Amino acid sequence: MSQIDPGTPTWLAARNDRAAFRLLLEHGPLTRSRLGELTGLSKPTASQMLARLERVGLIHPVGERSGGRGPNAITYGVRTDRITGVAISILDRAIQAVVVDAADHEHPIVQVPTDGHDRSPEGDVRVAVRAACAEAGIDEHTVSRVMIGVQAAFFVDGDELSFTDTLPGWPAVGARARIERELGLEVTIDNDVNLATMAERSSGVAQDAASFALFWIGDGLGVGLDLGGVVHRGASGGAGEIGYLAVPRTAEPLAPGANDFTDLLGGPAVARLLSSDGETLADVLPRLAHDDAAMSALADRVILAVNPLLAILDPSMIVLGGPTGTAGGPRLVELVAERVDAAAHPKLALRTSGTGAQPVLLGARQQLVEQIRDHLEADISLST
Q1: Cα-atom radius of gyration of the chain, to the nearest Å?
Q2: Over the stretch 4-45, which tens digit does the pLDDT of each residue have?
Q3: What distance in Å separates the CA atoms of residue 65 and residue 313, rounded to the nearest whole number?
Q4: Which of 38, 92, 270, 339 is most buried per CB count within 10 Å?
């Protein structure tokens, strides 16, 4: 990127243009007059900013607005067809994906089954991008980047995956490089619970927490660790893989024979609390909130996993998320809170996740929006 000297007219113009671009992203289409009001700049200066942004292809006229007497005012909006991305969540037996644009418009989420398909990093991403673009009516050639959530640990510097039980066909080393090479996309891979943790920080219940741990309880388990607004990934990307941790001896009466926390709290274990008919976790979770005995038994197990987090991290908040944590809702939080040593952790808050049904995609979407916007803003500095 070319360097612009601070304080020069060129630097000031680029600064104003970036501010105008962010306001258009935040407020949606604006007239010259309204942009001037929001920036505190004159109408001629606002006109110059709009002209420069239109010239570099970042905005375009999208309509007119009546201002009473005189001609209608033209409204300008951010172009969303220049660069798009696709947020992807790789699940056990399916891939979920959604198109992302600079304006963060809502696009339909698609789910593509993976059973019966040959799996590879580039193959999974290709299928996801095509399906998401087709559903949204978007030209897939505008897609320049993807954000992928995986049920695995990912070490960014080494492009290394571990704990890859749900990623058949994905190599331990080089998955990101393969996708970039074969599909020509910019690729970011992250652990799915880390992405859900980012979503919890930005738009969930932990927005004001000094630090928090998101305990993801579903078919598998994971912990997202947010320390002062930064997700802690560990030296090799494996922080939070609590499902592989051996259970304490106090778990024996609750789940005889359980070796690790997945045996204690994973999908099959929770399903057995609610059914003896071999149903899956998805089958039984709708009944959880109405079964007090199962809820109490679940809380007895959850506290065994929460206690190590409290002892090691002492976070200001624990968030229960994932399918099981969300289904348990406030009642599960209440029961777990009753089992916390309040004297040892007097400032601890427990909450149910507030990010909705697709927290992984939400986190991936939010990260992609910022990537796309940063890329487009770079064009302002280059072209000013």
Answers
A1: 24
A2: 455 588 888 888 999 999 999 999 999 999 999 999 999 899
A3: 54
A4: 270
